[in-house]
Amino acid sequence: MPLILLTGFPASGKSTRAQQLKEYFSTIGGKNVVLLSENDIVKNKHIYSDANKEKELRSTLKSELQRLISQDDILILDGGNYIKGYRYELYCSSKSNKTTQCTLHIDTSSEQAWKQNLKREETCQYSQENFDALIMRYETPDGRNRWDAPLFTIQPEDELPFESITAALCERKAPAPNQSTQSLPLTSTNFLYELDCVTQEIVNRVVEAQKTSVVGDEVSIPNSTEKFLLKRRYQLSELSRIRRQFISFAKTHPVDDIPRLAAMFFQYLTSHLV
């Protein structure tokens, strides 16, 4: 299914827009549409005060998306999707299934979203603490990032650009899966060893470069033509955590092209650093 990924502040109106999309593509578009909504899983908004439960929620949504996604019908994912690294993982899922996707950013202001939140039934409201925390953690999509593109930014008063969305999904060629997204058999007995070495070398290079570099400098990445931009000072613990996440991800997406590992990790690292 071509994927429509919605993102925005809590109570910004994502579910309303998701229903509009479903109605349009089901009737006018003549397509079979599946709406996968975070609201169907979350029964209590207090889940957002528990990091582990929130992580389980994202994992559940991603698993359901991977189960439902295909090349034929339309899948709408209605959720906050506020972490750019998570949106990158969803992009990899659609890419590995050789289907198109687009992102709809429901660009409602935090003030208006809070007013809309207060109009909900009490059991469906976000607490002030959780609302503010989600706003603070929200990473706005950027159309220059391939995992957010094509990006449609929707203001509260806007009509949905149905024709443009249709063109993005149905008239555009799906990106070809590559080693970083396509699940392949583990053909190289050295894969795990190389994975460990390549990722550790990159982390070490960034850590060492920070000792003699300043914010704004670029760091050459070993075994790659990419350069890492030092936007701030990065802690070893932070880089190591993302490295462990990538290793877990790469184990389920093994490649037989070892030189690609450096570029893959670079992409993953830059998409997950806040």
UniProtKB/TrEMBL annotation:
Keyword field: ATP-binding, Nucleotide-binding
Organism: Daphnia hispanica
GO MF: ATP binding
Superkingdom of the organism of origin: Eukaryota
UniProt keyword annotation of Coiled coil present: no
Transmembrane regions listed in the UniProt entry: none
GO biological process: regulation of transcription by RNA polymerase II; tRNA modification
UniProt KW Nucleotide-binding keyword: yes
A Pfam family annotated for this UniProt entry: KTI12
Protein name (Swiss-Prot/TrEMBL): Protein KTI12 homolog
Family, per entry: Belongs to the KTI12 family.
